[in-house]
């Protein structure tokens, strides 16, 4: 979108933009029926404690199994779902299913669920959450709601009040993609988050980048002082993991630990490779 805007403030029309518009319009109309027809699936990616290597929980990541396009990633359809308000019913489906899934896991394992700013604006969010918790009987302390910095940019007072109300249910609140928004440090003062997720852009080439190292060190130390946990996202190499451990990061998440996967593949009876067997025994009682 930034590219489409070019140098000035006015959008310049380009032929490819028409294709994109058409693509988007098609996805938008398909999205309406997709929820009804159950075309969504949740994949889960492990979060691991950096010191012990123990599994702390899993983040739910939604995928759309489109009948003709195949798997569509959230980066493509979440913005459309947000613009159309479809994120509210979709978000409810995600919340309910992620919590139902987590309720089958071993006690203590957490589930992280991404919340869109639009969902936070919905008066239905609180009751959706209360219902899912009551329905499964899950310990609410096992639920981590992930929000991004932009939630605190607009309507920040109302949103901070809402975060406190959510917290009163006993759930935990994480700040996702930390460092990618504006005036990040200020947000740490506005709400006592349980956890900060350091965005993967700082982790990506941290071995070569002293600026990224300095930022991660500063964030982990600040978080420690404020009593917040830190997770590094996008860990793809052992060198990153080792560096993050000495930097005092609490948890890690990334392809080096595991890709997100469909947890139904772990159901009993199916043959599993060593890696999947590892995650299956981690979620077992
Ligand atoms: P996020 O919440 O920051 O999720 C992390 C993203 O990083 C996921 O992409 C994950 O697959 C990817 N990732 C994990 N490990 C690595 C790694 O080692 N390297 C790299 N390069 N990437 C890694 P995904 O699943 O495509 O999701 C993208 C974004 O879409 C999420 O970012 C989140 O903002 C949004 N999203 C995903 N699922 C949901 C959902 O259920 N609800 C809402 N509202 N948003 C969602
Ligand atoms: Mg997230
Ligand atoms: Mg993130
Ligand atoms: Mg991210």
TrEMBL record:
<protein>
    <recommendedName>
        <fullName>EAL domain-containing protein</fullName>
    </recommendedName>
</protein>
<feature type="domain" description="EAL">
    <location>
        <begin position="24"/>
        <end position="274"/>
    </location>
</feature>
């Amino acid at each position: 979108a930034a590219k489409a805007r070019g140098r000035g403030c006015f959008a310049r029309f380009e032929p490819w933009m028409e294709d994109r518009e058409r693509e988007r319009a098609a996805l938008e109309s398909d999205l309406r029926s997709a929820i009804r027809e159950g075309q969504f699936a949740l994949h889960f990616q492990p979060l691991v404690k950096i010191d012990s290597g123990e599994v702390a929980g899993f983040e739910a990541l939604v995928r759309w199994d489109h009948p003709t396009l195949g798997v569509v990633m959230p980066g493509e359809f979440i913005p459309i779902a947000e613009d159309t308000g479809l994120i509210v019913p979709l978000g409810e489906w995600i919340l309910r299913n992620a919590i139902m899934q987590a309720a089958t896991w071993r006690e203590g394992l957490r589930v992280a669920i991404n919340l869109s700013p639009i969902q936070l604006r919905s008066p239905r969010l609180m009751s959706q959450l209360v219902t899912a918790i009551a329905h499964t009987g899950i310990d609410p302390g096992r639920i981590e709601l992930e929000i991004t910095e932009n939630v605190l940019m607009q309507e920040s007072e109302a949103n901070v009040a809402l975060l406190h109300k959510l917290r009163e249910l006993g759930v935990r609140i994480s700040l996702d993609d930390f460092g990618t928004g504006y005036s990040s440090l200020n947000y740490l003062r506005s709400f006592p988050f349980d956890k900060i997720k350091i965005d993967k852009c700082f982790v990506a080439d941290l071995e070569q980048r002293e600026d990224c190292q300095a930022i991660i060190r500063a964030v982990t130390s600040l978080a420690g002082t404020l009593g917040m946990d830190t997770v590094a996202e996008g860990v793809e190499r052992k060198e990153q993991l080792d560096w993050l451990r000495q930097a005092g990061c609490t948890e890690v998440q990334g392809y080096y630990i595991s890709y997100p996967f469909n947890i139904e593949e772990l159901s009993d009876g199916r043959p599993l490779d060593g890696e999947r067997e590892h995650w299956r025994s981690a979620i077992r009682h």
